[in-house]
Amino acid sequence: MAQLKKKKRFYDVEMPLINKQTQLLAYEISELDGKFIKYDLTRILRGKSILMQFKVFVKDDKAIALPRGMVLMSYFLRRMIRKGTDYVEDSFSVECKDALLKIKPFLITRRKVSKRVRRGLRDKTKEELKKYLKEKTYERIFEEILKNKMQKELSSVLKKIYPLSLCEIKSMEIEKDLDMKEAKEIKETPKKPEEKTKKEEKEIKEEKKPKKKEAEEETQKE
Fold this sequence. Notes:
Radius of gyration: 27 Å
CATH class of the largest domain: Alpha Beta
Helix content: 25-40%
CATH topology of the largest domain: Tetrahydropterin Synthase, Chain A
Number of helices: 6
CATH superfamily of the largest domain: Band 7 domain
Shape: elongated
Mean pLDDT: 84
Structural class: alpha+beta
Low-confidence stretches: 186-222
Number of strands: 9
């Protein structure tokens, strides 16, 4: 008798971040482990166009999708920019409690502003985000972005420099997962001031040289 070919079937995948469930096609549930999903949240967020990326983890015959990145659609941002305004954007890596993140904030001012104001907003945004994300897990950060909590708190700080019509996170992705040990090592290792010590040694040597010459001249006179 000919062997029956296995057929693919749909397996349920839980997405706890958004309290939703989706289905993926595979021969066995173990094949889903490590797969990536892209999920459009426009309907869930009532018009705010965010595309989420999830990674599937399989454990005890259960598939769970955890967030790995998010992107705010470019057409949504273009719609928010109006004449007589300026936008400020930046891109940098920042460490949270359990991961290294690459984050891109996006700000729109109420009116045209100078380069000095834009620079001030950019620097303050970077400073505040590094403080804010330091003690939070990446799952909590994604949750706060979707609830607009992080953007509100950041906007309230930045309005002291200049009022904004929009304060958003354009994109965020996980560059590297950090174990608790790795995170502690990165925080505890101090920066080695090698350049400073070498410069100080040179200065000390230069200061000592003329003193020796003066001492030799005094001995000759005697």
